[in-house]
Amino acid sequence: MISSSNANKVTPRELQEGKDEYMILDVREADELQEGKIDGAFNIPLGQLIRKPRHGDIDDFKVKKIITYCNSGYRGNIAADELNKQGFDTITIEGGYSAWKDYGNKKEG
Questions:
Q1: pLDDT digits over 44-70, tens only?
Q2: What does R_g of the chain's alpha carbons equal in angstroms?
Q3: CA distance 23 to 67
Q4: Pairing state between β 22-26 and 42-43
Q5: Residues 6+ apart with CB under 8 A from 51
Q6: Catalytic, out of 15, 66, 70, 79
Q7: For the chain, which domains are there?
Q8: What angle do CA 97, 19, 46 make, to 5 degrees?
Q9: How many CB atoms sit inside 10 A of residue 107's CB?
Q10: What pTM does this model have?
Q11: What does the pLDDT look like over 76-99, one tens digit per residue?
């Protein structure tokens, strides 16, 4: 069983205000991307991130804080916890992509 997240969270507003300071990692599955994504986000599904890490894709961003997200926040929390254990500086979006959209942000198709 997975324990509750220890990852720090950022609100959609905080992310919008400082978006250029972060590497944004979308951990949703490919079919979920049809709903849109945060502009500039990279996609590595959570299962793939945990089972077969492609850290080569994100290692260059160790100097930046990573923000993870999924649709509701659950998988984003798990991803942030896992990456933090591996030495990355990672936080997650409170409420996930749903909160991002509800805040009034445009989606990238």
A1: 999 988 876 656 667 766 778 999 999
A2: 13
A3: 6
A4: parallel
A5: none
A6: 70
A7: 8-102 (3.40.250.10)
A8: 40
A9: 13
A10: 0.85
A11: 999 999 999 888 899 999 999 999
Whether residue 70 lies in the annotated active site: yes
With residue 48 as reference, give the H or E element that holds it.
helix 46-51
Locate the DSSP E strands across the chain. 8-10, 22-26, 42-43, 65-69, 90-93
Q: What is the DSSP string of 9-38?
A: EE-HHHHHHHGGGEEEEE-S-GGGGGG-B-
Residue type at 22 in one-letter notation: Y
Is the pLDDT at 3 greater than 60? The verdict is: no
Looking at the DSSP assignment, which residues form a beta bridge with residue 91? 8, 67
Tell the burial category of 75 from Cβ atoms under 10 Å away from its Cβ (0-12, 13-18, 19+): buried
Task: Mention every residue, 6+ apart, whose C-beta is less than 8 A from residue 95.
Answer: 12, 72, 73, 102
Contact between 30 and 90 under an 8 Å Cβ cutoff? The reply is: no
